[in-house]
Amino acid sequence: MNNKTKIAVLVSGGGTNLQALIDAERRGEIPDGEITLVIGSRENIFALERAENAGIEHVVVHKDEAKLISVLEEHGIELIILAGYLTILSEDFTKKYADRIINIHPSLIPSFCGKGMYGLKPHEAALQRGVKVTGATVHLVNEIPDGGRILLQKAVEIQPGDTAEVLQKRVMEQAEWKLLPQAAEMMSREIREAKA
Ligand code: GRF
Predict the structure, then answer these.
(1) Domains in the chain: how many in total?
(2) I want to staple 152 with a disulfide (CB 3.0 to 4.6 A). Which of 59, 138, 157, 164 is the partner?
């Protein structure tokens, strides 16, 4: 019987992290989990096209948590991965799915994180502060933005002359696209073992 952990990936944008998850699953690097569903926060985002191209079921749910919960329940989702998802989830939602939601953030938390720190902003802030090392963090999601338990982190060096765009790309390539699939497998295995 297939008792792999059922994963939903929630997206709002280009979906390169979603793509990294899809590619990792195809390479056999997420043996304990299965990307079952992709949920977009709005229409016409490229992440949904990536899901379509990969043959993964996808839906759009606007800011409607009751709808979100019913879709997740219908599909028996056990692990929620926020991969560039820009909607803040309520305390009720994060409590309902305690230890079952992970997020990727493009800095070494607790630096350059929290409300409003998304997109290029963490990279702009890192450059402005003059840090020499930044990176990415995968963490559990609770009611505090970027405040849940840290699962994995990876450092990335800042180079002289970096712009926020250049740094964003390096952090994605060197850290985000590696960490998120690793964390997906780590959580999937844990959840699967707990069922066995
Ligand atoms: C990434 O930098 C991720 O860390 C974040 O938002 C960005 C999403 O990029 N929180 P993509 O949609 O996965 O390409």
Answers:
(1) 1
(2) 138
